[in-house]
Amino acid sequence: MSYLINQSADTCLVSGNGNKIILDILLFERALTDVHAVIEKIMTDIPVDIFSILGMRNLSAFIGELFARSLAKESDGLFLSNPHQDGYPDLLLMDTQGRELYDTLTKAGKLQDKSPFSPFPHGGLEIKATCGSVPTPTQCAKKGIQKPDMGDTRIHTLRGYDWKAHHRETNDLIGILWDFHANAPQIVAVFFGNKLTEQDWGKIIQPIEGGGRTTSVSIMPRSGVEKMYQNWIVVKDDSRYISFLNKYNKGNLISSKA
After folding, report:
1. Residue 113 lies in a domain
2. pTM of the predicted model, to two decimals?
3. Which of 64, 69, 171, 247 has its CB 3.0 to 4.6 Å from that of 196, i.e. a possible disulfide?
C-alpha cells in the first residue's frame, strides 16, 4: 500500500503542564504498518470472519483501538494505554512528568479508579475511527445502486464522515478514516486535531429514555472535520480518496505523487 505523507503537518502535542512535544511523523507511519500487519494476520490465520462477528460499529472501535495500541508500541514508552476502559484520553503522555504522576497513582493503588484517568491531568492522545456514512438502502435503490455490505468497498458511495465524542472538550485527536479493500478493513486516512475547541464539536445529544444502552454523544460538525482535514497526516495514494477528501472539505490540500 502506498500513502502520501504530509511532512508539513503540525504534530505538536502540549502536555497538561504546558510542555510542547513534537511527534515524529514516522510514528504514525509505523503504527499504520503495524495495524495492517495485524489485520493481514487475522485474515490469514483465523478461520472465522471476525470482522462480520464484530459488526460495523464494533469493528470501527476495534480499528481505533488497534491503531492506539500500535502507536503506543512504536512510541518507545512515550505513550501508554489508559488503564481505565472509559478513561480519557486513550493514550497517556508518559514524558518525565507524566511518568511520575502515573507511578504515584500506581503506588497509591489507584489504577482501577476512573477519576485519575478521566481525564488524565497530564494529557495524551485521543483516537477515534470512522468508516463514514453511505446512503440508506432506500436512497441507494433510487440511485440504482446497492448499499455496501460488510466487506464491500464504500468509497464509491461515501457521502460524508465525522467523529463522535462523549464531551466537547476532546482535543489532541487522531482521527482515522477507514474502508474495506479485498474484504479487509484498511486505514485510508489519518488526521491530527491539536487545536480543537468546544465549537468544533456539536451539541451533546442525550440518550432517549428507554433507548437501550446508548450514551450521550457529541458529533463533530463539518467545520471541525475541515479543521482536521487542514492537518492531514497520511492519506492512501488513491485518486478516489484524495478526490473525495478534497471535495468534501472544499479544498485541494492533498495531491497524488503519481
Report:
1. yes
2. 0.94
3. 171
Does 1 map to a domain? no
Q: For the chain, how many structural domains are there in total?
A: 1
Cα→Cα distances 143→117, 135, 140, 155, Å: 47, 10, 5, 16
Ranges assigned E (strand) in the chain = 3-5, 12-14, 20-22, 79-81, 91-93, 124-130, 164-165, 173-181, 184-193, 218-219, 232-236
Residue 46 in grid coordinates: 483465523
User: DSSP label at 198?
Assistant: G
Per-residue pLDDT of the chain (258 residues; tens, 9 = 90+): 799 999 999 999 999 999 999 999 999 999 999 999 999 999 999 999 999 999 999 999 999 999 999 999 999 999 999 999 889 999 999 999 999 999 999 999 999 999 999 999 999 999 999 999 999 989 988 888 889 999 999 999 999 999 999 888 999 999 999 999 999 999 999 999 999 999 999 999 876 655 545 568 999 999 999 999 999 999 999 999 999 999 999 999 999 865
Based on C-alpha coordinates, what's the Rg of the chain? Answer: 19
For residue 4, being part of any structural domain is answered with: no
